[in-house]
Amino acid sequence: MNETLVTEFVLAGLSSNPDLQLPIFLLFSVVYMVTLLGNLTIIVLIRTTPGLQTPMYFFLMNLSLVDVLYSSTITPNTMVNIFSEHKTISFIACAIQMFLFINMGSTEGMLLAVMAYDRYVAICKPLYYTVIMNKVTCIKLVCSVFTAGCLNSLLHTCAAFSLPFCHSNHINHFYCDINPILRLSLGSFLCIVISYSYIIFSICRIGLSGRRHKSLSTCISHFTCVALFYFPIFSMYLRPNSAYAVDQDWVLSVFYTVITPMLNPMIYSLRNQDVKQALVKFEVNKIYCLKT
């Protein structure tokens, strides 16, 4: 039987209604700019503020970097596709986009687990924190996370695109099978649950000192980011088939690829006094430099 192999995919888009194209484009533009501004601000603050040179902020800086790359994987292409006459993506470009998407999604899930372990050490083993979470260990953990995410993505992307696409070549920018992310993230989520179980047990057994209270306040921001990351994934893949809805999946996909990377820096900025103070000093120094 003769089969014609697919060389490009037709992008379905978010809406076929022409009246919604401009509002959707403007919305995505604002969200993407806020995402870049927020995460890049976090990166610059942590890199330039001496008081933020700690393991927790080192991991937060890498989380912001991942969020920038994660959002940039899909959002710009979606914005270009809205007004494009030929709404297509080549076979190679689609493979690259899938590789980057799975890579960044897997990396973020594991990085959140590393951040949970950091909070566990800070609260449950405060006297050994500087010994356990030293600079070399932190760098090794981050490098391991990025390497594992890359290998996981490479494995699944090569497996997916080694198969012939002969029946349907209609896809959506936000339709990426996140099963590879889910498989790796389940292990990361288990590590997060274990870390927070020890944290809660330690707090209940010993009580809160001033230092522990400050460390615990950072856990709230981290746990909020964990919830934003895992809720859409679990909602899509840990539900009965009878509850399947395409429109609902699109909303959840847009949420974890576009909205979550924008919210993460806001969550840490609004609840973290150190970041707030660093931001104020940064703005004051910038104004001073402009005046002189």
Care to describe what's here?
The chain is mainly alpha-helical. The chain has one domain: Rhopdopsin 7-helix transmembrane proteins, CATH 1.20.1070.10. A 3-stranded mixed sheet has the order 2-1-3. The radius of gyration is 21 Å and the shape is globular. The N and C termini lie far apart (76 Å).
Order of helices and strands: EHHEHHHEHHHH
Query: What about the largest sheet?
Result: 3 strands, mixed
What is the CATH superfamily? Answer: Rhodopsin 7-helix transmembrane proteins
Strands, total number:
3
CATH structural class: Mainly Alpha
Roughly how much helix do the residues carry, as a percent range? over 70%
Overall pLDDT metric:
79
Count of all domains: 1
Give the CA-based shape: globular
Tell me the strand order in the biggest sheet.
Answer: 2-1-3
Strand portion, in percent? under 5%
CATH topology: Rhopdopsin 7-helix transmembrane proteins
CATH architecture: Up-down Bundle
Span between termini = 76 Å
Count of helical segments? 9
**From the helix content, strand content and strand pairing, which structural class follows?**
mainly alpha
Spans where pLDDT lies below 50 across 5 or more residues: none
Overall radius of gyration: 21 Å
GO molecular function, one term: olfactory receptor activity
Protein name: Olfactory receptor
Organism: Engystomops pustulosus
Pfam families: 7tm_1 (PF00001)
List descriptors.
9 helices; 292 residues; three-stranded mixed sheet; Rhopdopsin 7-helix transmembrane proteins; mainly alpha; 3 strands
